[in-house]
Specification:
Layout (H helix, E strand, L loop, with lengths): L2 H8 L13 H22 L2 E2 L1 H4 L1 E7 L6 H9 L5 E6 L3 E6 L8 H12 L7 E5 L1 H29 L2 H25 L2 E2 L1 H29 L2 H7 L1 H33 L2 H40 L9 H9 L13 H15 L21
Parallel strand pairs: 1-6
Antiparallel strand pairs: 2-4, 2-5, 3-4
């Protein structure tokens, strides 16, 4: 492909001829590797949940004296507390420990930390969430995710068909699994903003999938195109007609997310990281997972139906119609309409006793009667 042709394809002036469905095993293998790595990260490393999910206390305050991590941990141990202590840039402290709700001397702990840092107790920012609240937040997050997936499946089935709904659901589960695996492998903190980002990702992935499925439905409504190419090749054509739109839409969304990831604050970076990974995986799955899975599901559905078996005198007509049904794998379609029409004409001529002349044969003049 020359640069001019690539530019025409990218700008939508030319429809590419990528063999996306033909190489679906490549995409499935790549996705399988990502899913295995993601599941390994989830099972063996686990998630680094924030205190919003697990409960606990998070303290942050400025540092005006030379205090080390060991000094802060020693102060916490005086109150039988353990946790994660970070001294950020030498001028601030971040502590994550158990909830202070049941601690009787919590105010004295705050005073000791403030004296150690050379600040007033009011300068320490304390965020304390009980374990029951964190468990409730986790349940609501999982419940919301399940409800969204069910609603998406029902919408796709109502708008298109159940096979497309199944393909879209597989793609969405693929996106959520890989995004969660990336969080587990990188050890980033899972916050409520992460859940919001994942729900946003599902909506974006669904949008891209609906665009592709809508084009597939439009092309498969053409009986001539379906009979000439077969279902699989029609899906491949639909993908080629919409692939650059999906790529350009994803790039437009990823660029501002990348700016937030690079230049945003800590809270925005957590949200932007989930969005960046999810949008990239969602754009990939809409093209390389949802559409190929549709061809597999549709192929099995058509294989279960099987060819119709005609009976009686309508056998020839039914066989002709059956021959026009497209093969799911894009094989050539045997069309016998011309042969059937020629055969029917010959049979009709034979029944009439050869009364009609053959093409190119001159009609003989009637014989003259002899006078007696």
């Amino acid at each position: 492909m020359t640069f001019r042709q690539f530019a025409d394809v990218y700008r939508g002036y030319r429809i590419p001829r990528f063999k996306l469905i033909e190489h679906r095993n490549w995409w499935f293998t790549f996705s399988g590797i990502l899913i295995v790595l993601s599941l390994a990260g989830i099972l063996f490393r686990g998630f680094n949940f924030s205190i919003d999910f697990e409960g606990g206390a998070q303290l942050s305050y400025p540092l005006h004296t030379a205090v080390t991590v060991q000094d802060v941990e020693s102060t916490l141990s005086n109150y039988s507390l353990t946790g994660e202590v970070q001294v950020v840039s030498g001028d601030s402290v971040a502590i994550r420990t158990e909830s202070l709700t049941d601690l009787k001397d919590s105010s004295k702990l705050i005073d000791d930390l403030a004296t150690q840092a050379g600040i007033a107790p009011e300068d320490i920012n304390v965020q304390d969430i009980g374990p029951s609240w964190g468990a409730e937040i986790s349940k609501k997050a999982i419940r919301g995710l399940v409800i969204v997936l069910i609603a998406i499946g029902l919408y796709i089935a109502f708008r298109f068909e159940w096979a497309m709904a199944a393909g879209a659901m597989i793609a969405l589960v693929h996106d959520v699994t890989i995004t969660a695996g990336v969080y587990a492998l990188t050890g980033r903190v899972v916050t409520p903003e992460t859940v919001i980002a994942i729900l946003t990702i599902l909506g974006f992935s669904l949008y891209d999938t609906v665009v592709i499925y809508d084009k597939v439905q439009e092309n498969t409504e053409s009986a001539a195109l379906l009979a000439r190419m077969g279902y699989t090749k029609v899906v491949d054509l639909s993908l080629n007609q919409t692939v650059m739109r999906s790529v350009n839409t994803s790039l437009v969304v990823l660029l501002p997310i990348a700016s937030l990831l690079l230049f945003g604050g800590e809270t925005l970076k957590d949200f932007a990281f989930a969005m960046f990974v999810g949008v990239a995986i969602g754009a990939y799955s809409s093209i390389f997972i949802a559409a190929p899975m549709l061809t597999i599901i549709k192929g099995r559905e058509m294989a279960k139906r099987g060819p119709a078996r005609p009976a009686g005198r309508a056998g020839a007509t039914a066989r002709t119609r059956t021959a026009a049904v497209p093969a799911v794998d894009g094989a050539g379609v045997a069309v016998a309409s011309d042969a059937a029409a020629t055969s029917a004409t010959a049979r009709q001529a034979s029944r009439q006793g050869g009364s009609r002349p053959r093409p190119g044969q001159k009609r003989r003049p009637p014989a003259k009667r002899k006078r007696r």
